[in-house]
Amino acid sequence: MGLLKDRYCIVGVGETEYSRDSRRTTRAMAVEAIKKAMDDAGLGPKDVDGMLSYHQNDSTPSLIVGPDLGIRLNFWIDMIGGGSSIEALIGIAMGVIEVGMCRTVAIFRSMNGYSELRIGGTGARGAAPVRGQDLATRPYGTMSPGQAFAPSFMRHMYDYGTTSEQVAHVKVAHSKHASQNPKAFYKERVTVADVLSSRWIVKPLHLLDCCVETDNATCLIVTSAERARDLRQRPVYVMGVAGRVSKPRSDFAFAHGPLSRVAGYYAKEIVFPMAGIGPEDVDLTGSYDAFTFTTMLQLEEYGFCKKGEGGAYVSSGIIELGGKRPNNTSGGQLCE
Questions:
Q1: Which of 77, 82, 140, 275 has the fewest CB atoms within 10 Å, measured from its CB?
Q2: Is the pLDDT score of 1 beyond 60?
Q3: 100 domain residue, yes or no
């Protein structure tokens, strides 16, 4: 994989409005986001021949979306997934281009995440039949990601003395960043006191510790560095990639390793050697901020601070714009 460093690029980005009542189909939103990404890159329908997406049975397949844009696909995949799926799909895009299966790949996610199928275990998701892995959780009341993550967060607080006040600084930082982002859903800056006074969702998560549920679609376009030289935007080179890295078990996580460990512990052993750098060489980070606590745990596990020091790290000002290593400068999922 080291041989692929800087040989592939992200050349276009597109997104729809972030709303809570899109009144549009996921098909229409996907088409808009992909078209905007193609325009951003200076590409037409004949220039894109691969398409990838991820979903949770809440989107529209690539094989439907592609023809709506006049694209005939040489390769497409729609995989079931959640966080870190985009990174995995970037790696897959690089691989299929490398072996000659296609030349340029559009990667999208489209969902009505508030007005239709909400992640939080209510509405249509909550009414779905209990089967498969849900048999170990839903009969006992575990219906949402917040409930699933909470034991890891609580264990970190128990083991290392991490406080809700410290972790609330993640929301504070991201809200400052979002206040400068015209596309963010929540642009209002919040304080630590605001986070701690918001209502409980599941201990230790307050409402403002949780990400925003919105209707939207986004798209990235990946192609070779050679091809990127002729396109509209300055390309973003991919130095290394890891995605869908998992812990030994995702269901009974307590059976292997510290309960507060997240998959970044394993992913860092892939992505940093690929890129030929270490955490100390990174000036800007982007984290999966489904919750304030997930950002804190990820930054720890990737080595930006020592294990147990995440609370102090995120509350030090380092993750804010103007700090040593800003995180999620768009406002992230906590605000977008």
A1: 140
A2: no
A3: yes
Q: What is the DSSP letter of 56?
A: S
Among 335, 123, 330, 128, residue whose Cα is nearest residue 213:
335
**Residue 125: predicted pLDDT:** 67
Predicted local confidence at residue 140, as pLDDT: 84
* CATH code of 49's domain: 3.40.47.10
Lowest-pLDDT choice from 77-86, 109-118, 228-237, 247-256: 247-256
Contact 103, 128 (CB under 8 A): no
Same domain for 152 and 34, yes or no, is no
Residue given tokens 């592609």 in the structure block: 66
The answer to whether 334 and 211 have CB atoms below 8 angstroms apart is: yes
- 311 pLDDT higher than 90: yes
Closest CA to 274 of 299, 300, 245: 245
Whether residues 33 and 155 fall in one domain: no
Domain count, the chain: 2
Q: Which residues of 199-215 are buried (b: 16+ CB within 10 A; e: fewer)?
A: eebbebbbebbbbbbbb
* pLDDT recorded at residue 2: 58
Given a contact cutoff of 8 angstroms between Cβ atoms, the answer to whether 29 and 123 are in contact is no
Residue 4: name the closest of 238, 199, 185, 169 by CA: 238
**Residue 192 belongs to a domain:** yes
Same domain, 153 and 251: yes
Question: Can you tell me the distance from the alpha carbon of 72 to that of 49, in angstroms, rounded to the nearest whole number?
Answer: 6
pLDDT higher than threshold 60 for residue 161: yes
Over residues 227-270, the pLDDT tens digits come to: 999 999 999 999 999 999 998 887 776 777 789 999 999 999 99
- 113 and 247 co-located in one domain: no
For residue 255, is it within any domain?
yes
Q: How many angstroms separate the CA atoms of 191 and 178, rounded?
A: 14
Domain housing 257: 144-212+243-335
Q: Which of 182, 204, 237 is the last residue of a domain?
A: 237
Amino acid identity of residue 260, one-letter, is S
Strand partners, 106: 51, 221
